[in-house]
Each structure stands twice: as C-alpha cells, then as structure tokens.
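Forum > Structural Biology > Help requests

Title: Can anyone predict the 3D structure of AraC-type DNA-binding protein?

Hi all, first post here. I have the sequence for AraC-type DNA-binding protein but no way to get a structure on my laptop. I'd be grateful if someone could post the structure tokens.
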Amino acid sequence: MKSQEAKIMPQSDIYFHTPSLQAQKMFFYPICLGHFYYEPDYHLVRNSYDSFLIMLLMRGKCNIVVSGRQYCAVKGQLVFIDCYQPHEYFSNQGWECLWIHFDGPLSREYYQTVVSSSGPVIQLQSPYTVENNMNKIIENFSSDQTIREVLISGCLNNILTALLLSASESRPEYSLSGIIDGVTSYINEHPGGDLNLNVLAGLAGLSPFYFARTFKKITGKTPHDYVLSSRINSAKFYLKTTRLSIEEIGLSLGFPTSSAFCTAFRKRIGISPLKYRDSPTE
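Reply #1:
Sure, ran it for you. Structure tokens for AraC-type DNA-binding protein below:
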C-alpha cells in the first residue's frame, strides 16, 4: 500500500503486520515495513514507537539522533534504532531505504550487543545478506502469498546475525576472540595433554597474565576451570561408552592419580565416577 506521510514519494510502499501470539512468544516479527523514497527536508521526530528499526540506505544519506547524539548514515550502511526511546531522523537531501520495524523476545539483546560495539550506524561486512533478506520479507508482503511468520523470523535472524558479525569486525578484541577460540578448540581436542597456563598462553602468543585475564573475559571461565570442565566432560563420555577402568580414564585425561580424578569428578558431578558409570544413561 502507499504511504500518506508527507515528503514520502509516491513510488514508496508500506506494509503493516499484526503478529500472532505464537510469533510474539517465539519469533522475530515485523510490525511495519517498506521501501521508501524520501524527498529533501524529510524530518521525523518521535518519542516512541514500540519496536526496533533497521534501515538499509540504498541511496543518499540521512542523519539520526538517538540518546542526544547525532550520526550520519550513507549508502550501504544500516541504521539500527531502539524506537522505544526518543529518536529522530532527517536529511536535507532525498534518500532511499529499505526499512523494517520489528520486535521479538531477543530483539533488545541483539540491539544492545550490536550497538554497544558499533553504534547505531553499522558498516556492513555482508551487505548482500542484509539486502537480500530484507527484500525477501518485503516481497512476502507485496505479493499475494500467505504471510509465513516462521520464514520471516528466519530472515530477520539472518539480518541480525550479519549485524553481529559486522559489529564484531569493528571491535579491537575481535582478533583476541579468534585467538581464544583457537585455544579452546585445542583444549577440547587434547583434554589429556599438558594444558597448564604457560602452555596455553604460549599457544595464544600472549603473556600468562594477559592470557588468563582475556580468556576469563571471553569465555567466562578461568583457563584452569575450562580445562577441568573439558576433562570431566570427556570422562563422562568414556565412563558411559568404554570399559576402561576409572584409573585408566583419569590418567588418560591428565589427572596425576586416580584419587585426584575421583575427587575432581565428585566435586563437579556430585557422585563418584563409578556411581556415574552405573547410573541410568542421561
């Protein structure tokens, strides 16, 4: 349908959607969306519109104001706004964009994660993914097809994933996250190896102190705690799927003695390795 809003050009399209109860509980869902061509000097000021807004600039540029700060977005960039809060956007020149007001149970978490890293204007690492999924959603509304909320939610999820990746690329700690991911992969592939702090820090190419602090920040666990969790998880698997003795399993996973293994296992799982082996399969 056509918009009746001032300074929106006649070739613009707008669509509205009332989400089902299931969508409101489980999905990302659009509230209104469209493909707009703006005339010069368009200016919107709004206290709130209960949703989150993504706008992909296809042509021109626009200014946005959120939290008392002004930003400028240009062709190829995406604007992400929490419309529950006061906001405005405007330009003294015309611009074109694809836009979707959406919401859903995890929308605020996605918004906060993305915007805390990159701000409300995002330089996309994969513009095609975002544009393609936005067009798919708009086409679903512009055609006579049945509105399929689960597929639309999937498209919105693809868009938000692309935003997370783009935001991560803009963060200086992104490379550190990749390094730590490599270390955790090594730990999980070699649970019985020598995994002391100096060895792991060496794998990361960092000092032991800086590595330990960074590892805890990214994984939520100390290196020692992560290694112990990996070894106990491996032990649970071997106890249920092999005939190896308790001692053999403990020694193969880097515990110095059978007693040390049993103590660590009981502390984490609440029962001894033998009782775990004899318990019903989880």
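The two ends are 54 Å apart (CA to CA). The chain has a mean pLDDT of 92.
Shout if anything looks off.
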